[in-house]
Structure formats: C-alpha cells, structure tokens
Amino acid sequence: MFGNSLKIYILLCIFKSTLVILSVLCVVLSCASADQTVQMKLLQHWDNNFEGQFSFPLQTNIVGWELKMNFSVSVSNIQQWDGDWYYQSPDGRYYVLLNKDTKGLHAAGTTLTVRMMGVFSGNTAPSATGTLVDLSGDSQTVPPVHVPNSMQHTQYNYAEVLEKSILFYEAQRSGKLPANNRIPWRGDSALHDQGDNGVDLTGGWYDAGDHVKFGLPMAYSVTMLAWGLLEWKQAYEQSGQLQYMLDSIKWPLDYLLKCHTAEHELYVQVGDGGPDHGYWGRPENMTMARPSFKITESKPGSDVAGETAAAMAAGYLVFTSVSKSNDYVDDLCWAGIWLYQATKEAKYLHDAETHYQPGSAWGLSWDDKQAGCFALLYKFTHNNTYKEDIVQTFHDWMPGGTIPYSPGGLAFRLQWGALRYAVNMGLIALMAADLGISPKQYRCWAISQFHYALGSNPQNRSYVVGFGNNPPQRPHHRSSSCPMIPAPCGWDEQTNTGPNPHVLYGALVGGPDQNDVYVDDRKDYVKNEVACDYNAAFQSGIAGLLELAIRNQLPDCQH
Ligand SMILES: *[C@@H]1O[C@H](CO)[C@@H](O)[C@H](O)[C@H]1NC(C)=O
Ligand SMILES: *[C@@H]1O[C@H](CO)[C@@H](O)[C@H](O)[C@H]1NC(C)=O
Ligand SMILES: *[C@@H]1O[C@H](CO)[C@@H](O)[C@H](O)[C@H]1NC(C)=O
Ligand SMILES: *[C@@H]1O[C@H](CO)[C@@H](O)[C@H](O)[C@H]1NC(C)=O
C-alpha cells in the first residue's frame, strides 16, 4: 500500500518536473502557441442567468487575442469586461470576442481569465467551450537569399541585407496592397488620401515609424535607391532581388506621378505630423484627418520639386518609361544632374554646374545633396574642381579630420539617426572609389561604417532589424508594434516592454550615441526610429559592396 503510494508520488514528481521543463523550454524557445481550447467553468446560475469563466494558462507572452465560444444552448445579453464583440451567430450559440485595447498584454506564466454573465434559454444552464486564438505575431519567414557562388568571402551576408532592406520598404507601403504583398501583417490603408477636388493620392511610402507621407524624403529615397541599382545592377541580379527591387521603387514612383497633378502643381505631403504622432496604432486603422499639401507657382518649394524631378529622372533611367517632370527645376544641382543623365541635354548639365556649391560637404541627407552632386558631376565632366571637393570632404570625414568619431569607430555627424549619416557618406565613398579616387582607402572606410551598422561595433550587435547578431527588437515603428489584425492596437503597444510582435526585417535604426551606447527602447525615436531615408543610401551601399565581392574587388582592409 505504502509502496504503491510512493511509486505514484515519484511518478507524479517526474511528471511535474517534465511539465516544468517543457514549459521552461517553451518559454526559452518561444514555442508558437497553438490555439488553446478549455471548458467554461460555470460559477453560478439562478433563474435564467448564468455566470461563467474561461481560464487559459499562458506559455508565451501575448499582445492580442480572440476568444471563440460555443455554448450548448442559446445565450444572450452577455456582459463581460475584457473584450469587444467581433461576431455573434444568429442562433446565439457562437460568439467571438476580441480583446479590448487595454486588455491585450499578458505575460507567459500567468493565466488569462475571462469572466462573463448572461441569460440562457431552456431549463439547463449552459456548458461551453472557449478557444483562445493568439493574435500576437505573424508567421512571416524570409526565404534564404541566393548568394552568388563565385564571389569573395564576406564577413556579412550582403545579399541577405539587400533582401531584407527591400522587405522593409514593402512594410512601408501605403494604399491598396497588391496580391503579391509579402508582409503578412500589413493590409490596405489610407485609401482616402486625396488632394483638392478629390484627386487620388493613395499609395507611396509611410515616412518612418509614423504614417505621414512626405514627398521630399520619399523622392530622395527613390533617387538614392535607383542610383545604387543603376551603378550596381549585378548585385541585385545575382542575388535574385532584381524583380523585387524594381517593384519596390515603382511603388513610390507611381505615387509621385499622381502627385504631379498639373503643370505647376505638385502635392508634397499627405497627413499632418501633429495628429499623426498623437496616434499609436496601425495605418489600417487610422481615423484622423489626413490633409494634403501642395506647392504651386504662388507657393513654391524648389527643393521638393527638384528632388521629385530627380526621382523621376532616376526612375526613367531604370524603367525607361516613367515620365519626367521638369517644370520648376531650374535652380538645383541635384535635379539638374539627374535630368542630364535621363535626357543627355547639355542645358541640364550646365544647370547643375551653375548651381554647384563648392567646398567640403557637411554630409549627405534628404535635405543636403551636395556630396551626391559632386560625385556625379565628376563622373560626367572629369573636372578636377569636383574631385578636389570630394577629396577635401573625405579628408574631413575620415579619422583625423573634423568629424568626431565614437570610440568604436563610427563617424558621428549628428545624434539623430547617427548611423544614417555615416552610411550615407559610405555610399558616396564607394561611388568616388569607382571613379578612381583612392579606391582602396575609400572602400575600406566605407566598409568600416557599413560593418559598424551590421555588427562590428562595441555592442557587438546589428543595427538592422531581423539581421545578424542581437538586432533591435523594439524599433519605434507603429505598425510592427501592433498585434495581428483585427486585434486593437494603441499606446499599450508602444509602452509594451516586449519585442515588437512583427519583425520589421531590414530596417536600419537610428543607432547609438557618440559613446557607442544604445538601448533597444521603442519610445526612443532618436536612436530607435527607422525611416525610408535611413535605408536608402544604406541599401545602395550594401549593393555596392556585394557587387565588389562579385567582381573580386573587395580590398583587404587589414593590410
Ligand atoms: C463552434 O461553432 C462554430 C460556428 O458554428 C463552428 O465553426 C466551430 O467548429 C465550433 N467549435 C467547437 C469547438 O465546437
Ligand atoms: C482595423 O483594420 C482591420 C483591417 O482593415 C480591420 O479588420 C479591423 O476591424 C479594424 N479595427 C478597427 C478597430 O477598426
Ligand atoms: C570646372 O568646374 C568649375 C566649377 O563649376 C568651373 O568653374 C570650371 O570652369 C570648370 N573647368 C573646366 C575646365 O571646365
Ligand atoms: C564583443 O565581442 C568581442 C569579441 O568576441 C569581445 O571581446 C567583447 O567583449 C564583446 N563585447 C561585448 C560588449 O559583448
């Protein structure tokens, strides 16, 4: 008798510890939590009223859920405090509840309990089954990228970075998504974006972690991406990414074409920063007004008009079909040099040269393209004036120059999106190297900056979401911080300390401070936001490095 109890006791202990080990393993490996079905516990009933409860022990963190309930008899007037009704069958036996905005977050190891009261028909109190559907994450997988087989060994898989960066732009799409959308957590959004008199302005890219569509950084991003593609097409071809890349840049180009509504009229923004930033949620569920803004002859904006013309010209060079818009553009070097490439008309080259700003470049960004300009002017004219400015600029940018460096080797132009400035100049260095200016030195410097972003830094971490070692998991980015549609999303998702439920593959975050310090905090939009313009020169530079590897021209930077 005693012996048997002991055996049962020991068996129970083994069983219990197996359960513990299993659940610990589940947490460690973050087992994809399957739907859980439980019986409702009937707490009490009186007359035709019942009170019942569903309890789900959780093995993983969840950020959104759906509860599907099947009752044995028809029930009505259900009151509960955890969700909003998503579906009720006409016969009153099947109900679907979606978590309320503030009731979505639950930690692994806790029990999610939903209590309810209601009225039943007939004489017997209901029994019920409840199925909890975890709406936290997606099951997005990124197929292994094709790495060209005859190429130099590289420390980082550049082809994979290209593939993922293209996916980042896909996640930024606004408007009606095509059937071949590869981002499972994105849907149609901002379908009413319009200009005066209802002119259609749907489409384009959301700017960053928010949902404003800014024409200038969008057009700049397209130009920079197209530039990389034009110079280093082999990198895209041989990694199997060319078609994705063409689709990627066609999306904003189609939108920019829509924005050019009349000869002297260009829409340059849809959405308003104030209300937009006052909303944390996915674009699919935005309800705030999204005003549009345009430039005209009486309200000019030559910067954005010039950048749009540059993007169109670059798009023309890629597709030989995107129509060009060149009215407004008469006072910008950058627009001129792109229009010259697309048209080969000498007047545009002359324009570019006339408006060239001499001297060392501050850097490169969507509102300062001087460095891009001298690289292209030198390419087309071989005039040493431009070369001297390139050389002076990199003299300032390389170690020992005027630009400060972090102890870990990052050229530190500005705190906000520090990595972006470094890799932007990395791209110009690769372009200049291709033009024969100190190729080894410039390429090695570019590699040092790109590799810093990919993981060669004092934190030993990648700053590209979903790539490499210990990448950021909490980018300041609304839609990837939300659970799956249709679960609600709000400020709880912003302050949630867990990772974003969706991996925003390929997005370069702002990056560390001047001491190489970085914290993966979703609220930190200085270090942890992502943006179309951050990834643009970054992706093109990575294409440049991949192409060098394919051509066996990557320098040995140790010697
Ligand atoms: C619950 O009811 C729905 C709708 O009638 C049905 O599709 C589903 O299979 C039922 N589930 C269970 C667990 O009985
Ligand atoms: C949010 O948008 C999705 C997709 O369009 C939709 O299924 C869901 O019901 C919306 N949620 C709210 C609260 O509007
Ligand atoms: C080179 O460019 C500079 C600056 O635009 C210009 O002043 C100069 O005339 C050019 N030189 C030649 C030989 O074209
Ligand atoms: C980064 O990696 C290097 C080499 O593996 C190691 O020496 C160093 O301690 C690591 N630094 C951190 C912050 O983990």
UniProtKB/TrEMBL annotation:
<feature type="active site">
    <location>
        <position position="529"/>
    </location>
</feature>
<keyword id="KW-0119">Carbohydrate metabolism</keyword>
<keyword id="KW-0732">Signal</keyword>
<keyword id="KW-0378">Hydrolase</keyword>
<dbReference type="InterPro" id="IPR012291">
    <property type="entry name" value="CBM2_carb-bd_dom_sf"/>
</dbReference>
<dbReference type="GO" id="GO:0008810">
    <property type="term" value="F:cellulase activity"/>
</dbReference>
<dbReference type="Pfam" id="PF00759">
    <property type="entry name" value="Glyco_hydro_9"/>
</dbReference>
<dbReference type="InterPro" id="IPR018221">
    <property type="entry name" value="Glyco_hydro_9_His_AS"/>
</dbReference>
<dbReference type="InterPro" id="IPR012341">
    <property type="entry name" value="6hp_glycosidase-like_sf"/>
</dbReference>
<dbReference type="InterPro" id="IPR033126">
    <property type="entry name" value="Glyco_hydro_9_Asp/Glu_AS"/>
</dbReference>
<dbReference type="InterPro" id="IPR008928">
    <property type="entry name" value="6-hairpin_glycosidase_sf"/>
</dbReference>
<keyword id="KW-0624">Polysaccharide degradation</keyword>
<dbReference type="InterPro" id="IPR001701">
    <property type="entry name" value="Glyco_hydro_9"/>
</dbReference>
<dbReference type="InterPro" id="IPR008965">
    <property type="entry name" value="CBM2/CBM3_carb-bd_dom_sf"/>
</dbReference>
<keyword id="KW-0326">Glycosidase</keyword>
<feature type="domain" description="Glycoside hydrolase family 9">
    <location>
        <begin position="158"/>
        <end position="321"/>
    </location>
</feature>
<keyword id="KW-0136">Cellulose degradation</keyword>
<feature type="active site">
    <location>
        <position position="476"/>
    </location>
</feature>
<feature type="active site">
    <location>
        <position position="520"/>
    </location>
</feature>
<feature type="domain" description="Glycoside hydrolase family 9">
    <location>
        <begin position="325"/>
        <end position="539"/>
    </location>
</feature>
<feature type="signal peptide">
    <location>
        <begin position="1"/>
        <end position="34"/>
    </location>
</feature>
<comment type="similarity">
    <text>Belongs to the glycosyl hydrolase 9 (cellulase E) family.</text>
</comment>
<protein>
    <recommendedName>
        <fullName>Endoglucanase</fullName>
        <ecNumber>3.2.1.4</ecNumber>
    </recommendedName>
</protein>
<dbReference type="GO" id="GO:0030245">
    <property type="term" value="P:cellulose catabolic process"/>
</dbReference>
